[in-house]
């Protein structure tokens, strides 16, 4: 239910106005001064404030500015005395929805309150959506406590609120797109589109078409005009992943867009304009690429106004347990397979691995292990390139046997007599192996 806060030191007028508003189905909270009004705002979920201009400890015009600064989603209607319209005008300049002159307020208050409520509810809905987007894509989603990573996050937070172009460097699988998303959803453009284009995923001609769009009849099969990624990202952010793979002929066209905001669709003679923030990422050394003539140096300098270099997973192995726990929970829910625990050997193997594929590789390994597991995760579930021994300090062949016995026991629903027959061993031998392997 919509809540309205009425602030007025004239008790009779405040009660009368409250009664009028309550009869329309609103919940009303009353305050006699600025102090009590601010206290109510901090405690209650309020949509609209109706405030008198003259209050014992302040005035409604200044209060409006404060409310819009601290609670921008709340709408304010100001009550002015007859002949003091300038107060209402000042209040609107401070962010008030509108003003009413006392004496006419009883006739106009309900229609005006209805419009203000509609706007406030919409703004609060947008705020909730922005909050959810921030939680889903913001910096809180970036896992890890590593010192180098924390420095990268701090850098990204500082640049997020600007419109500066950002170049994110790092090996494949280090989370470059995750950082780009976080920068966008913590920026002033967060309510607009975040559009990601992988420059390595398309051949030259198709990449140009995807980026700039095309005019009707631009080529065979172009039966109608099509917008490109640039136009889709208008007023938002365009993330160019693997920018180092962009053909050098296209780089000049991209540079023009960055410098002027102007571009042409493929096959079109009409210039178009966009307002886009550019974020780019690569696993290449663009400085070396530009020196060797494989990447335009002027484009490199435009994109690398602010550079963030993400650490490889092998340089932040202290974060592996955090990722492991996160991915186990994720894939346990996805596969509906509870994981009772993780062996010391499993974690030790993860920490010793070189992780050439970084976090993405770790994620895939955990998913595979959860799918194969019949109980806790142990090193027998890991791919063959994990040459780090096993949980029980035995040979790899023993681990294969251990895993096979588990599979058979699961197949027969734990019936050890039936399992022994399928395995071709005696029941006593099976019990001994169950004990030895801690199955």
Give a concise summary:
By secondary structure, the chain is of the alpha/beta class.
Task: List unreliable stretches of 5+ residues.
Answer: 388-395
CATH superfamily of the largest domain: P-loop containing nucleotide triphosphate hydrolases
Report the count of strand segments: 16
Structurally, the number of domains stands at 3
Structural class: alpha/beta
How would you portray this structure in words?
By secondary structure, this protein is an alpha/beta fold. The chain folds into 3 domains: 131 residues, Response regulator (Rossmann fold, 3-Layer(aba) Sandwich), CATH 3.40.50.2300; 173 residues, Rossmann fold; 122 residues, Helicase, Ruva Protein, domain 3 (Orthogonal Bundle). Helix content is 48%, strand content 14%. It is built from 18 helices and 16 strands. The strands form 5 sheets. It has a 5-stranded parallel sheet with strand order 2-1-3-6-7, sandwiched between helices. The protein has a 5-stranded parallel sheet with strand order 9-12-15-8-16. Strands 4-5 form a two-stranded antiparallel ribbon. α3 packs parallel to α4. It is extended, with a radius of gyration of 32 Å.
């Amino acid at each position: 239910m919509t809540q309205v806060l009425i602030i007025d030191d004239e008790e009779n007028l405040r009660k009368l106005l409250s009664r009028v508003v309550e009869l329309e189905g609103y919940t009303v909270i009353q305050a006699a001064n600025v102090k009590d009004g601010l206290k109510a705002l901090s405690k209650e979920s309020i949509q609209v404030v109706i405030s008198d201009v003259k209050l014992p400890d302040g005035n409604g015009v200044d209060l409006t500015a404060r409310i819009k600064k601290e609670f921008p989603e709340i709408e304010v209607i100001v009550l002015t005395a007859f002949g003091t319209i300038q107060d209402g005008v000042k209040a609107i300049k401070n962010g008030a929805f509108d003003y009413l002159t006392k004496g006419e307020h009883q006739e106009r208050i309900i229609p005006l309150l209805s419009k203000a409520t509609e706007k406030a509810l919409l703004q609060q809905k947008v705020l909730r959506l922005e909050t959810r987007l921030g939680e889903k894509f913001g910096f809180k989603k970036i896992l890890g406590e590593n010192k180098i990573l924390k420095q990268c996050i701090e850098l990204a937070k500082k640049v997020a609120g600007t419109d500066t172009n950002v170049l994110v460097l790092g090996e494949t699988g280090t989370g470059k797109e995750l950082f780009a998303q976080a920068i966008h959803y913590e920026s002033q453009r967060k309510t607009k589109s975040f559009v990601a284009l992988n420059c390595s995923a398309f051949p030259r001609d198709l990449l140009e078409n995807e980026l700039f769009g095309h005019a009707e009849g631009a080529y065979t099969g172009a039966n109608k005009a099509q917008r490109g990624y640039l136009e889709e990202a208008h007023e938002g952010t365009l993330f160019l992943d693997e920018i180092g793979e962009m053909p050098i002929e296209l780089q000049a066209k991209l540079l023009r867009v960055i410098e002027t905001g102007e571009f042409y669709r493929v096959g079109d003679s009409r210039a178009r304009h966009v307002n886009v923030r550019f974020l780019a990422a690569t696993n290449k050394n663009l400085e070396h690429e530009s020196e060797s003539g494989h990447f335009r140096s002027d484009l490199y300098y435009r994109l690398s106004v602010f550079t963030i270099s993400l650490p490889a997973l092998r340089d932040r192995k202290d974060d592996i347990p955090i990722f492991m726990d996160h991915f186990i929970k994720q894939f346990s829910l996805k596969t509906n397979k509870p994981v009772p625990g993780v062996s010391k050997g499993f974690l030790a193997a993860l920490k010793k691995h070189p992780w050439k594929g970084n976090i993405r590789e770790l994620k895939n390994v955990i998913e595979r292990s959860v799918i194969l597991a019949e109980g806790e995760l142990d090193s027998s579930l890991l791919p063959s390139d994990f040459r780090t021994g096993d949980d029980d300090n035995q040979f790899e062949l023993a681990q294969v046997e251990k895993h096979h016995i588990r599979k058979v026991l699961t197949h027969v629903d734990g019936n050890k007599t039936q399992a022994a027959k399928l395995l071709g061993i005696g029941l006593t031998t099976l019990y001994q192996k169950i004990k030895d392997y801690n199955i």
